[in-house]
Hints:
Elements: H1 2-29, H2 34-42, H3 57-60, H4 66-76, H5 82-94, H6 108-143, H7 148-162, H8 165-176, H9 200-238, H10 241-248, H11 253-265, H12 267-270, H13 273-282, H14 286-291, H15 297-306, H16 310-338, H17 345-350
Helix pairs in contact: 1-16, 2-4, 6-9, 6-13, 7-9, 8-9, 9-11, 10-11, 13-16, 15-16
Amino acid sequence: MLIYIVKRIMLMVPTLFGIMLITFVVTQFVPGGPVDQMIALLEGHGGPGSEVAGSSMYRGATGLDAERLDELKRLYGFDRPPIERFLGMMADYLRFDLGTSYYYQQDVVDLVIARLPVSMSLGLWTFIIVYGVCVPLGITKAVRDGSTFDVVSSTLILVGYAIPGFVLGIALIVLFGGGSFWNIFPLRGLVSDDWAELGVVAKVLDYLWHMVLPITSSAIGSLAVMTMLTKNSFLEEISKQYVLTARAKGLDERTVMYKHVFRNAIIPIITGFPGYFIASFFTGSLLIETIFSLEGMGLLAYQSVLNRDYPVVLGTLYFFSIIGLVSRLLSDLSYVLVDPRIHFSSVDRHG
């Protein structure tokens, strides 16, 4: 297994390099870059994020002299050849120096750290709810396959799956956020304005109070996939010969289900656990964050692309690509942990 892990880590390097190279090349051809946007600002045509995508460097420079334009290029590092800029950027990234945001004028690392609490709150609670609800629900549905409970629960979760999260979020705001019916839950932020003045218990309750609507909107769509995966995995195992043999020996249904079926049926569910768990800390939902006025990673990514904030775009891509590659490796290794029958010896021998 050690050789397999080393090989996977070695493959991560060219994969990560390729991801960054392709993205960097694409950014060189996207119109309306930071220099164009600053020119538009200086000429009074708008600010960062304004619509300058149709302008070219030549047209944008018509109101500025060559010396001022060269200063702007040096300010953003565009006075150097692209290959030099890319290699310099990667050298900085190896030290986890992700640069400074053009738009926010903050270090990218500090900017990410400031936005992570929102994404972590949404992702982690969604993760807990999805696994905490779907696994027992899926098992129950498999045991009671075809019953009224199975049919009704399948209908409800499929309806929830069919409703987009942002649509559900808007409906919840209208119903419970002081729209047209009840004013029960707050509409913005992770905590109240007076959160720092509250006691420990009151702080926890205030935080959970703010999270109810966005987490509900975020989690509902994921329930159907995980529930049906759990159900189908258990149904497949229940139909196998060893289950019939265990029942023929006189074992009670509970023992058959949780001692024999469970450890085999849970494998495809558990193996996705590491990747999903890690991703839940760092992913953001643009629409959910926008609807509930939460400044998380989803909104940051969108604004960075819109504003051509390349240090944030490339820096966060580098960081999250590493997270994604590591989580994929952990997902593969989890197969061995949950099922000793699986090993990587053949992979180690044949590459």
